């Protein structure tokens, strides 16, 4: 999926205001059941975290002790593709598909980096 923001015509992308306590959400789950599978497909799970509000993080991970609906979506995808060699692009595409499905958005930074305020940007109300 490609988005064109026509900057020269004055159209800018709008991002939701990230308020309250923020969490770094791993787009690729870091649970042991996933870690080796992602590594075998060229993904370092700590390179792909999205900064999201804590309430959104709780909503997608739930309280079931198994990572909630986010991890379950990855389990289903992993089971369906156990015998295929996936490239990084396919996995990244799936991660972003899940961000849309679970309605989360935020800057992507590696896990070890500090949260710093971003430069000027247009926020959605």
Automatic annotation (TrEMBL):
InterPro entries (UniProt xref): CHP02269_MYXXA
Pfam family, one: DUF2380
Keywords: Lipoprotein
Protein known as: Putative lipoprotein
Lineage: Bacteria, Pseudomonadati, Myxococcota, Myxococcia, Myxococcales
């Amino acid at each position: 999926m490609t988005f064109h923001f026509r900057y020269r015509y004055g159209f800018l992308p709008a991002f939701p205001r990230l308020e309250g306590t923020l969490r770094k959400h791993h787009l690729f789950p870091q649970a042991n059941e996933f870690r080796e599978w992602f590594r075998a497909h060229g993904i370092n799970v700590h390179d792909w975290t999205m900064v999201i509000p804590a309430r959104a993080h709780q909503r997608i991970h739930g309280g079931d002790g198994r990572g909630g609906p986010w991890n379950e979506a990855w389990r289903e995808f992993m089971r369906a593709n156990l015998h295929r060699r996936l490239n990084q692009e396919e996995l990244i595409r799936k991660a972003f598909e899940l961000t849309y499905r679970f309605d989360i958005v935020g800057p992507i930074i590696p896990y070890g980096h500090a949260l710093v305020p971003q430069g000027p940007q247009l926020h959605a109300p």
